[in-house]
Amino acid sequence: MRVKSETKRQTILDIATRAFIEQGFNNTSMSEIASRVGGSKSTLYNYFSSKEDIFSAVMASSAKTDIAEAFESLDPKKDIETTLNQFGRNYLSSVLSSGLMAIWRIAISESERSDIGRLFYAEGPQKGWKRLSHYLSKKSDEGILRHSDSWV
Fold first, then answer.
1. Class in CATH terms, 6-141
2. Model confidence band, residue 1 (pLDDT cutoffs 50, 70, 90)
3. How confident is the model at residue 23, as a pLDDT?
4. Which are the contacts of 112, defined by CB distance < 8 A and separation ≥ 6?
5. Where are the domains of the chain?
6. Per-residue 3-state assignment (H helix, E strand, C coil) for the chain
7. Model pTM score
8. What is the mean pLDDT of the chain?
């Protein structure tokens, strides 16, 4: 049995991302991804249990790489106005990128047929909203902002 490698997993995700963006979720098959990777479907199944699992990993990877910079800019040591302005610019730049918009559209269109919409929310917006809410709560605790429901 071959040993799984993070490099191979990331290669699969990169190729699957392009396939999903180019062809959509429904038109991208495990066979198509395997063909583009240059392996077999069994190789894919060594890393992922299904096409939905690959897409979920694509969403998580996109959130980590594409939006991470925005949330990393929420530095509690910096001035709040500067921090929130930088966060807003970084966040909008990320979420309005063509790649992330394509992933978002796929997640929304598939949400009626599968758990992809729920997974998208859990892997992206919900995690980000928690980080922002935590940042705002800390600023409230420091007396910089009025106390309120930071989630809202």
1. mainly alpha
2. very low
3. 92
4. none
5. 6-141
6. CCCCCHHHHHHHHHHHHHHHHHHCCCCCCHHHHHHHHCCCHHHHHHHCCCHHHHHHHHHHHHHHHHCHHHHHCCCCCCCHHHHHHHHHHHHHHHHCCHHHHHHHHHHHHHCCCCCHHHHHHHHCHHHHHHHHHHHHHHHHHCCCCCCCCCCC
7. 0.75
8. 89
